[in-house]
Amino acid sequence: MRLAVQRLRPEPVPPHARQHMVRMRDGVLLATDVYGTDVAPAPAPTVLARVPYDKNSRYVFFDKIAERFTAHGYVVVVQDVRGKFRSQGRTLGWTGEVDDGYDTIEWITHQPWSNGIVGMFGDSYYGFTQWSAVSSQHPALRAIVPRVTCTNNGPGIASYDAGSGPQPLWLEGATYQAQVWTDNDSYEYDVDLTRRPLVAAYEEAFTAIGKRSPGFDLIVGGIPLAPYNGPHPYDARPVPVLHCVGWFDNLGIAHMRDYTELARRPGWAAVQYLIADTTDHENYFLESAPVPPDDDHLVDDAALERMLDTYTGPAVEFFDVFLKGVARPESLPRVRWKLGHAGWRTASMWPLPEATTVELYLAEPDAATGTVPGGTLARHPAAASESTVWRYDPDDLVPSVAADTFLQLREHADERRTLDRDDVLVFTGPASDRPLDLAGPVHAVLHVESTAPTYDIFVRLLDLAPDGTARLVVRGCAQADRPGEVEIALGHTGYRVRPGHCLALMIAGSDFPNHLPNSGTTESPWLTTSPKASLQTLRTGSAHPSRLCLTVLPESGE
Q: Which helix (H) or strand (E) holds 299?
């Protein structure tokens, strides 16, 4: 049976936008919509977004975003990036955005409706295009609002945590490259990830489309390209940044690395602002999860209108300070963060100065392969050395609980069934009669060895409720090729473990289909037809202190 492929073509330009074909330095024309020249007082500051997902699609909802910015006196410019939808040029993501960002800002500054001041806004890839414009160092760029994104990604990279060492390949990221970055249009199709070699599933799609994705081929070939042809944004001229982070975003680890790194750098530190919400990549909220149909903004227009007010409001406040100058920087909290199950907080810095590190040591490993509660999370390591073994079986992979981690909170699925598998390890802490507030970075330090030359470790920290359900708090992964200590970043969080609940740490050797299964050999996991099973040994005790490291707040009495 022939693979069913749906081709996504550009939607019509809204009547309240005017499209221009803007010339770049190499003669390529980029399709660019302008909103609000009939509303904003001329000349006015401009909010720019450069997107690869069709500037006129409901998915990016820029016609509605533009209404909110233009109502506050801004002109809005939205552009299809090079090689996507109505824009000309080669289709290869994470390349060319530095020069195209500069040239687009330069074009804006020469328009009669522009006062020469530009800010940028947007999520994910159109957060990356903001960092590319920072790299270009155009003097008119005065502030950016990158949401659920990161600086360290690029063509040939498929990892939600690029920059922290070897990682299992993020299969969702590879599928994204194959479906979005083939030609001007985008394509939707089901990938049969049970095929061996696995790359054959994508070859079937490219054959049906009649074209290949160069970005996907770079991933399979393990050939990363530099995303910036200018300085890395960290080394560019500082501009004010409002980082909009989701505690449940699949890019949250990398985004918080950007924030914490820039907050340490002279020049940048003074202009870093953070909003961290209990949201995932697609702007679903923990307090609404699992999301009912009438609150699902991807399908319900009324829900979208409600979501967009909280989505754009902080950016309007930020731009009023740094583009318009109608408010002072001191009016903005440096850090606004939501404590899951408790509410919003403000602070002068992150991590919070009053937070402390708590280490919980993995103990009683013999029980960890059983059902919940498994082993324990103890305040001190056991004096004696202990160990346990878990298996990696490419014919019986540990299933990903979220079919799509971009939509992590849409269902916010119960992970108890996975915890009770006999090929994962679980360690559980005690329940408390008082809240435990997590506020800051979380990581695991594990002492592991394997019978295979390469192996993957997936770690998930879960909230185990009194009714037995288990739901995600943070997660992380690493790939190793030798025995010893492995440190796994699980990201930052703001999360209240409520009275009667406890923390459960899960360790597994696979996470499918979110991640590409390990070959168990030195052979490429994309090309292998016979991946090999392996056994992993976790060591604990004072000589091998495998542990979970939390950042917690003092008891508040709430």
A: none
Secondary structure class of 280 (helix, strand, coil): coil
**CA 181 – CA 155 distance, rounded (Å):** 10
Burial 62-94 (b: 16+ CB within 10 A, else e): bbbbbbbbbebbbbbbbbbbbbbbbbbbebbbb
Residue 188 CA to residue 7 CA, distance in Å, equals: 7
Written as one string, the DSSP assignment of 306-344 is HHHHHHHHHHHHHHIIIII-SS-GGGS-SEEEEEBTTEE
Rounded Cα gap, residues 538 and 446, in angstroms: 7
Q: How far is CA 464 from CA 428, 471, 492, 504, in A?
A: 9, 7, 19, 6
How many Å apart are CA 493 and CA 474, to the nearest integer? 7
pLDDT tens for 6-57 read: 999 999 999 999 999 999 999 999 999 999 998 777 899 999 999 999 999 9
Angstrom distance (rounded) from CA 263 to CA 520: 40
Q: Where are the alpha helices (DSSP H) in 389-516?
A: 408-411, 416-419
- CB of 428 closer than 8 Å to CB of 367: no
Q: How would you classify the pairing of strands 343-347 and 356-363?
A: unpaired
Cα dist. 189→5, 100, 193, 357 in Å? 5, 30, 12, 45
Contact 535, 474 (CB under 8 A): no
Confirm whether pTM is higher than 0.70: yes
Strands 484-497 and 436-450: antiparallel
| φ, ψ of residue 121 in degrees (nearest 5) | -150, 145
Q: What is the pLDDT of residues 333-370, one digit of tens each?
A: 999 999 999 999 999 999 999 999 999 999 999 999 99
What string of DSSP letters covers 174-227? HHHHHHHSSSSSEEE----TT-SSTHHHHHHHHHHHT---HHHHHHHHT----S
Q: Could you tell me if 448 and 539 are in contact, meaning their C-beta atoms sit under 8 angstroms apart?
A: yes
Do residues 130 and 122 make contact, with C-beta atoms less than 8 angstroms apart? yes
Give the separation between CA 78 and CA 281, rounded to whole angstroms: 20
